[in-house]
Design a protein that fits this description.
The chain is built from 19 helices and no strands. By secondary structure, the protein is mainly α. α15 packs across α16. The N and C termini lie close together (about 10 Å). Keywords: Amino-acid transport, Cell membrane, Membrane, Transmembrane, Transmembrane helix, Transport.
Length: about 475
């Protein structure tokens, strides 16, 4: 439940529920199969299918180590989130926990920042999906963007089950593509077929200038690209209020994080870089496309284009889902317009989802008309805003654990191993990545919009506090 639902009823008719999340008005339509694939899909996106090419060119084979280390940090973040979810599984997720354990202002900032993250991501992904469509058909970009947005918007309004089913199949495409690539590379290494069969060898991981061809510094600087690839892995936490038996399905989904990263990132990169020398990869070119070309498989470009299309649609679908839930959580806590609390009969946040989808359409139009540097700066803000959610998850877990250990709150049934030390380590790692973003000229743009957004939120909160002081205090 949200922090003010103990005293309030949903839309004046539905009693507030218990700490387990009952009574939020949502329907628990997401089963174990869908939760697992949402968790898997959240960790696999265009950051792997497209962005890894740039990272390989900067780090060489040592990128494998960067993904392994970053993957460990992501696991610490997800286990911290899991501990909080088992303490109180709510749809507001980390925004709720920030509100409870850090303060009302932290919850306000986290909710609105995560909402903005998905709006901006949705804008870029639906635009990207429209661009990918031109590979097969000469369709105006705005037409494809409009069709995709309307379809995903409609699916999210029909029911949460339909959202989950779409995400299941989107994720299935991505998983199948990666496993297929791994099997093809394994066949080349063992049997030696295709044009790459004569040169393919595990020795390519260290024979082309060593494992650290650009030095350890080059590897460290790619951590920001690697962490960007993992953004949205926390989405499974937003599903807590609509998951069937969340205390069973969510821990299982979170515990699959290590093997997901080991197979889909570390495993895939080991196989690809054993077949194609790292020097063949370039920024802006998918490593999957480059690998297919090296193998002499002409269908590779079409296959990867279809996969990145589904990855983009999956991200936009997730954006539609999460923005409505975040706006409703803010509204229920008096930190957003009350009209965002309304749900359809199927239990979906109608107004919040519609408002967010409308902004995504406006963004697509702006991107089409003025695709200049100003828009790119706003898009880059997605990176730092996504990391803010991770920071709040870790800080909230550290404070929750301290209270639980003192007996002030019940212990979670799913404790994060090694916490709070692992949470502190993850926090330091994230702050280190942010510092590297400030050093890197290309990534520095991600930080430019943060002060402006912080100023907007600060002023907005002061106005909110002046008009309604009780909404500036956490209540359960």
């Amino acid at each position: 439940m949200t922090s003010v639902q103990v005293d309030k009823q949903h839309d004046g008719s539905e009693a507030a529920g218990t700490a387990s999340g009952e009574g939020e008005g949502y329907q628990r339509g997401l089963g174990a199969r869908q939760i697992q694939m949402i968790a898997i899909g959240g960790a696999i996106g265009t950051g792997l299918f497209l962005g890894a090419g740039k990272a390989i060119s900067k780090a060489g084979p040592s990128l494998i180590l960067a993904y392994a280390i970053a993957g460990l940090v992501i696991f610490f973040i997800m286990r911290a989130l899991g501990e909080l979810l088992m303490y109180r599984p709510v749809s507001g997720s980390f925004s709720e926990y920030a509100r409870e354990f850090v303060g009302p202002f932290a919850g306000f900032v986290t909710g609105w920042t995560y909402w903005l993250f998905w709006v901006v991501t949705g804008i870029t992904e639906v635009t990207a999906a429209a661009t990918y469509m031109t590979y097969w058909w000469n369709i105006p970009q705005w037409v494809s963007a409009l069709v995709f947005t309307v379809i995903l918007y409609g699916a999210n309004l029909i029911s949460v089950k339909l959202f989950g089913e779409l995400e299941f199949w989107f994720s299935m495409v991505k998983v199948t593509a990666i496993i297929g690539m791994i099997l093809i590379c394994a066949g080349i290494l063992t049997i030696g077929f295709s044009d790459a069969g004569d040169t393919a060898s595990m020795t390519l991981l260290w024979s082309e200038g060593g494992f650290f061809p650009q030095g350890i510094g080059g590897t460290v600087m790619t951590l920001q690209i690697v962490m960007f690839a993992f953004l949205a892995v926390e989405l499974v936490g937003v599903t807590a209020g609509e998951s069937k038996d969340p205390k069973v399905t969510l821990p299982k989904a979170i515990n699959t994080v290590p093997w997901r990263i080991a197979v889909f990132y570390v495993g895939a990169l080991i196989m690809i870089l054993s077949v194609v020398p790292w020097t063949h990869f370039k920024p802006g070119i998918s490593p999957f496309v480059a690998a297919f070309e090296q193998m002499g498989l002409g269908v590779g470009a079409a296959i990867v284009n279809f996969v990145v299309l589904t990855a983009a649609l999956s991200s936009c679908n997730s954006g539609m889902y999460s923005t409505g839930r975040m706006l409703r959580d803010l509204a229920l806590n008096g930190q957003g317009p009350k009209l965002f609390t309304r749900l359809t009969k199927s239990g979906t946040p109608l107004i919040g989802t519609t408002f967010s989808a409308g902004l995504m359409l406006v963004g697509v139009w702006i991107n089409y008309q003025w695709p200049g540097d100003a828009f790119d700066k706003v898009v880059s803000f997605a990176t730092i805003s996504g990391m803010w959610a991770w920071i709040m998850i870790l800080v909230s877990q550290i404070r929750y654990r301290a209270k639980a250990d003192r007996g002030e709150l019940p212990q979670s049934e799913f404790k994060a191993p090694g916490a709070p030390f692992t949470s502190w380590f993850a926090l330091l790692f994230i702050f280190g990545v942010i510092v590297m973003m400030g050093i890197d000229k290309e990534a520095r743009v991600s930080l430019y919009c943060a002060p402006l957004w912080a100023l907007i939120l600060g002023v907005s909160y002061l106005v909110l506090k002046a008009r309604n002081p009780e909404n500036a205090a956490f209540k359960r």
